[in-house]
Design a protein that fits this description.
Layout (H helix, E strand, L loop, with lengths): L1 H12 L15 H14 L3 E5 L5 H10 L6 E6 L2 H14 L5 E5 L2 H4 L7 E6 L6 H8 L3 E9 L9 H9 L3 E6 L5 E6 L1
Parallel strand pairs: 1-2, 1-4, 2-3, 4-5
Antiparallel strand pairs: 5-7, 6-7
Helix pairs in contact: 2-3
The chain binds S-adenosylmethionine.
Keywords: Methyltransferase, S-adenosyl-L-methionine, Transferase
Enzyme class: transferase
InterPro entries: Cation-dep_OMT, SAM-dependent_MTases_sf, SAM_O-MeTrfase
């Protein structure tokens, strides 16, 4: 696992040389460690991720929950080549058996998913983040968490922050971790 994480981190640092379609656009290592610790503290066993890319964040999540028997990650990605690359990375990290990759547009692949999830991570097309949040909220257990990346570096996430701050039935906080994380607990 350490080897594949190191390779992906190096690739992430050199992304300016990569074509936009091939970019990982991954969370930072600090963000990965943060969610890994959070998932361990929660005793989480079920994770839903929207935006798999090459599987970097997924491996951090898998490492955080794998000690809990029956732990599972469902992850959504529309790009088929990224699904193949992520599948290979997850295999190399030894966590492919606990990850279910659903390829397609998240608007479709979210349909029919059954909760409850302990933790949801929203990290795909920013313009649909509010829609993903509303679709996921009923799938999250009480006191479970919906988190979103890029809340400090991307203007497109501003409406999302305003939405969750106004939303009834949740408690939310913006954290200066990585590119900015919005953590929202379902009350
Ligand atoms: C920021 S990257 C995810 C990075 C990943 N979470 C990590 O940190 O390693 C966003 C990913 O979401 C995918 N994506 C964008 N819009 C999508 C959609 N509507 N449905 C499914 N996946 C989508 C992109 O192809 C891209 O791989």
């Amino acid at each position: 696992m350490i080897q594949v994480m190191g390779r992906l981190e190096k690739q992430s640092r050199n992304e300016r040389c990569t074509s936009p379609a091939e970019r990982m656009m991954a969370i930072t290592p600090e963000t990965g460690r943060f969610y890994n610790i959070l998932l361990r503290a929660m005793g989480a066993s079920s994770v839903l991720e929207i935006g798999l890319s090459h599987g970097y964040s997924t491996i951090w999540f898998a490492d955080g929950i794998q000690d809990v028997p029956g732990s599972r990650i469902t992850t959504l990605e529309r790009d088929s080549s990224k699904c193949s690359i992520a599948g290979a990375n997850l295999r190399e990290a030894g966590v492919d058996g606990m990850v279910n990759i659903r390829q397609g547009d998240a608007a479709d692949t979210l349909d029919g998913l059954e909760g409850p999830f302990d933790f949801v991570f929203i990290d795909a097309d920013k313009e649909n983040a509010i829609g993903y949040f509303e679709a996921c909220l009923p799938l999250v257990r009480r006191n479970g968490i919906i988190a979103a990346d890029n809340t400090l570096d991307m203007r497109e996430m501003r409406p999302y922050i305003e939405h969750v701050r106004r939303r009834e039935g949740v408690r939310t906080v913006t954290l200066h971790v990585g590119w900015g994380q919005e953590l929202t607990a379902r009350l």
